[in-house]
Amino acid sequence: MRSYSGQTWLLAPGLLLLAAPAWAQTEGLRRPLVTIAVSPDGDDSAAGTPERPFRTLPRAQAEVRKSNATSDVTVQIADGIYRLDKPITLTAADGGQKGWTVTWAAAPGAKPVLSGGIAVTGWKLHDPAKHIYVADVPRGADSRHLFVNGQMAEVAGIELDRKQVVFTNQGLVVNDPAAGDLKRLGASRLELMALGHFTTRFSPVERIDGKTLVMKQPAWANNIWGYDTLAHPYKPEDGKLYLRGGLGLLTKAGQWALDAAKGKLYYRPADGADIAKLEVELPRLQTLFHIAGSYDAPVHNVTVSGLRFSHSSWLGPNGAEGYASQQSGSYLTGCAAAYPAEPLVTCKWGCPEFESVRNEWSQMPAAVQVSAAEGIRFEKNVFAHLGQYALGIGNDASANISGVGLGTVDTVVSANVFTDLAGGAIVAGGVRRDAHHPSDPRMTNRQLTIVDNLIRSVSKDYSDNSAILSTYVDGAQIVHNDISDTPYDAIDIGYGWGMHDAGGNANYRTRMHGYDWPQNRVYETPTMHRNVVVAYNRIYDTKKHFEDGGAIYNLSASEGTVIAENHVFDLNNRIGLYLDEGSKFITVRDNVVEDAGTWLNINAVTPAVRMWLRISTDNVATGNWHNGGKVGGQWTAYLNNRIEDDRPVTGKAWPAEAIDVMGNAGIQNLAGDVSYGDVRARANPHRKKEANKK
Questions:
Q1: What CA–CA distances, in Å, run from 58 to 35, 68, 75, 88, 419?
Q2: Residue 60: CA atoms inside 13 Å, Cβ hemisphere, count?
Q3: Per-residue model confidence (pLDDT) at position 23
Q4: In what order do the strands lie in the sheet with 454-456?
Q5: Does the pLDDT value for residue 186 go beyond 90?
Q6: Which bin fits 646, alpha (ψ -120 to 50), beta or left (φ > 0)?
Q7: Using alpha carbons only, how large is the chain's radius of gyration in Å?
Q8: Which residues pair with 127 in a beta bridge?
Q9: Nearest Cα to 168, choosing from 199, 206, 212?
Q10: Residue 665 to residues 104, 480, 534, 575, 629, Cα–Cα distance (Å)
Q11: I need a labelling partner for 496 at 20 to 30 A (CA). Which of 34, 420, 655, 683 fits?
Q12: Which carries the bigger pLDDT value, residue 319 or residue 6?
């Protein structure tokens, strides 16, 4: 049994229980409660009672502050769509004061929607030959995403033949006949999108010069150096290039294009569809909801329950920075002082100069953000139809609209649905210095629980985003989630490639020259990535595009971390369990891995091992079941990486113990109905009806 700040976990096979937080309990006493009601049919000059509700959420927020120091407060939100003019931001003054709580919750039976979009109507036929319609939208209402009938629509675009383009330091020479006359496209909305071995990259076009796309800087410069770059993906034969965004590229049913300056939205419906009956939502907000305090005054004791967050679109890739992705939503910005003169020649797969910016990466801002906060709960919500990562917890300041990052304590994300997302579902922790080695202890992210969530059909645009990423968090518990239909990894933990671990990484010292730059310290203390539990998760139909990574993946050292009793299947013949560079002190036990190409892999950096450098050490995989699949990497006595009590299975002849793990994996029965429309977990044939009752 473990206890974390009022949460009690019973870590026994088949049983995981979450007790109510201590601040929500009063021994034998009934706590006073103030209810503030909101309805789309209300009036902000009314009393805010259930009989006379307010109309807007900001009005309710102002009322919360009158009572949250003397009682618990619930903002009861009636059914309907609440179209936001700007994000809702809760600061320390909006949280529970002096041990009281504040809850933002759906009214009984209601399913309210907090939307950052506008409903698009008034369609007119624009091009009969191409079956393209146009509608007026507010001028300047920019968006990278459009949602039609509750699904993210495809941006107008075509695939380019990588063999018929030429990369230069300034842009791309296009000799592919499929692109036609580039001049017809106009450069205002054009961008180049690339899929590599583990990255998705976007570079916007500055102008068109004959057959040359001259690209915006520094986006292009940052996308053509480093690892798995736009010009040199790890496996060029698998790399994809797409030209997207212009009206001249709108040729397929279901595609759209936007001229934000003129306020014109173009869409081609499916043949036979009545466009007047389509529900079309154009996002106009980049983010929707923020809980953001300060290190001196964090937000306390806020619960968000039963709401749907929809219709956002992060616009970062439209600007000069583009999206020079590095891994799972982290990307390069700015101009590196040490940038090489010929990046396409000298930095195809890393170079010493690239290591100078290793600590300067930025993070994608999430649609819903939490920072400098304690005792925050998200339960029974729906995060759907969003244009980036859905929920960001304790990310770097660069990813928070408040300008304050990190500093989350005792956060619980339980029984939510995440679906139809351009990015991943949840990103916790930061990637910069104060994330891995906080300069102020109050910046530390700790005590995070992600439990009983349904995650399906995510990372549809930023396909390099993992469904769940937890970087530097002390005491993260990622348990009993159901994750499917993802192009990349399901659960990633850790960051840094061992470079920031205690004593540093010998590979970066001797081969990569990462410590040649004074901005990259060799730390003598561990990072905040420790004491992580990834257990009882059900992961399937994942790894649909990228070969790199694994369904469950760890990066760097993490003392006290356990990956246990997960059921991983339908992996598209890719990697199940992956310990990447610098992984140390990890226990991988009693998992069931079906039909993987590689069921277990560790990256100890083979060239470094040949130099007798010890990079990924002291890990143990014990008691795991797998039917086929190979073992990858260096599981050797020299590195003290051990495979013990291995349990290979022929075909589907799983023993009873493995079937118990399979039946217990995924969302617990006690979580109730975790679904959204037809988005539901695949039936678990191994589950016992009484498996979650004691």
A1: 15, 16, 11, 7, 27
A2: 31
A3: 39
A4: 81-83, 113-115, 308-310, 382-386, 417-421, 454-456, 482-484, 538-540, 567-569, 592-594, 625-627, 647-648
A5: no
A6: beta
A7: 25
A8: 132
A9: 212
A10: 30, 6, 11, 19, 21
A11: 420
A12: 319
| CB atoms closer than 10 angstroms to residue 253 | 13
Q: How far apart are CA 300 and CA 207, in angstroms?
A: 49
Q: Which class for 497: exposed (0-12), middle (13-18), buried (19 or more C-beta within 10 A)?
A: buried
Residue 427, judged by CB atoms within 10 A of its CB (0-12, 13-18, 19+), counts as buried
Instruction: Locate 576 and state its tokens.
Output: 């199940």
Q: How many CB atoms lie within 10 A of CB 398?
A: 18
Residue linked to tokens 């993946």: 553
Do 624 and 662 contact (CB within 8 A), yes or no? Answer: no
| Contacting residues for 296 by C-beta, under 8 A, at least 6 apart | none
Phi, psi for residue 249 in degrees, rounded to 5: -100, 5
Gap between the Cα atoms of 158 and 162, Å rounded: 12
Instruction: Report the phi/psi class of residue 6: left, alpha or beta, with left for phi > 0 and alpha for psi in -120 to 50.
Output: left
**HSE toward the beta carbon, residue 422, CA cutoff 13 A:** 29
Report whether 204 contacts 194 (CB < 8 A).
no
CB 562 within 8 A of CB 587: yes
Query: Residue 497 contacts by C-beta under 8 Å, 6 or more apart in sequence?
Result: 505, 508, 555, 556, 580, 581, 582
Block residue for tokens 């601040």: 23
**How would residue 506 be classed by pLDDT, with cut points 50, 70 and 90?**
very high
In which element (H, E) is residue 656 found? helix 656-664
CA 268 vs CA 80, 123, 155, 215, 684: distances in Å? 29, 11, 11, 28, 39
Phi, psi of 52 (to 5 degrees): -135, 75
Cβ–Cβ < 8 Å for 361, 431: yes
**Close Cβ partners of 108 (under 8 Å, ≥ 6 residues apart):** none
Q: Which two tokens stand for residue 218?
A: 């520094």
Give the contacts of 45 (CB within 8 A, at least 6 positions apart). Answer: none
Residue 253 to residue 226: CA distance in whole angstroms: 37
Q: What is the pTM of this model?
A: 0.95
CB count within 10 Å of CB 649 equals 16
Report how many helices (DSSP H) and strands (DSSP E) the chain contains, helices first. 7, 57
Report whether 257 contacts 119 (CB < 8 A): no
**Kind and range of the H or E element at 569?**
strand 567-569
CB 404 within 8 A of CB 365: no
- Least Cα distance to 467 among 487, 445, 448 occurs for 487
**Residue 187 to residue 183: CA distance in whole angstroms:** 8
Q: Tell me which amino acid residue 26 is.
A: T
Asked if 576 and 600 touch (Cβ cutoff 8 Å), the reply is yes
Confidence of residue 424 (pLDDT cuts 50, 70, 90): very high
Main-chain dihedrals φ then ψ at residue 515, nearest 5 degrees: -95, 10
Model confidence at 184, pLDDT cuts 50, 70, 90, reads: confident
Name the region of 545 (left: φ>0; alpha: ψ -120 to 50; beta: rest).
alpha
Distances (CA, A) of 622 to 10, 564, 583, 601, 648: 21, 10, 16, 14, 12
Alpha carbon of residue 398 to chain centroid: 16
* 280-283 and 147-148 beta bridge pairing: antiparallel
Contact call for residues 517 and 545 (beta carbons, < 8 A): no
How would you classify the pairing of strands 191-195 and 240-244? Answer: antiparallel
